[in-house]
Amino acid sequence: MAHRASPIRGMISDAFGVRGRRNLMAWAVAGGIAYYLYIVPERKRDEEQQRVREQARQWAEAAAAAAEQKK
Questions:
Q1: Quick check: 1 pLDDT over 50?
Q2: Which domain holds residue 32?
Q3: Which positions, given as ranges, span the membrane (predicted)?
Q4: Residues in CB range of 18: below 8 A, 6 or more apart
Q5: What is the tens place of the pLDDT at every residue in 33-68?
């Protein structure tokens, strides 16, 4: 085993293949791209679904109130 400055650094290097600053920056860029391609759209979709559910609940309450008034 080669001499390493830090055992944690060596563990990260072995686990993720990070071997230097350029490689680390490439991982950071890839992580940022993945975040914007996967996480952001999923959160927006979840927020939209929540808005739709809330609107449906409000419509159902309004319909129930209107039906109650007709009685």
A1: no
A2: 8-70
A3: 24-41
A4: 12, 24, 27
A5: 999 999 999 999 999 999 999 999 999 999 999 988
Phi-psi sector, 18: left (phi>0), alpha (psi -120 to 50), beta? beta
- On whether residue 30 sits in a domain, the answer given is yes
Mean pLDDT of 2-18: 68
Task: Look at phi and psi of residue 14 and say left if phi exceeds 0, alpha if psi is from -120 to 50, else beta.
Answer: alpha
The maximal CA–CA distance of the chain, rounded, in angstroms, is 85
- For residues 15-54, one letter each, b for 16 or more C-beta atoms within 10 angstroms of the residue's C-beta and e for the rest, the string is eeebeeeeeeeeeeeeeeeeeeeeeeeeeeeeeeeeeeee
Decide: 23 and 17 in contact? Cβ < 8 Å: yes
Task: Give the model's pLDDT for residue 8.
Answer: 74
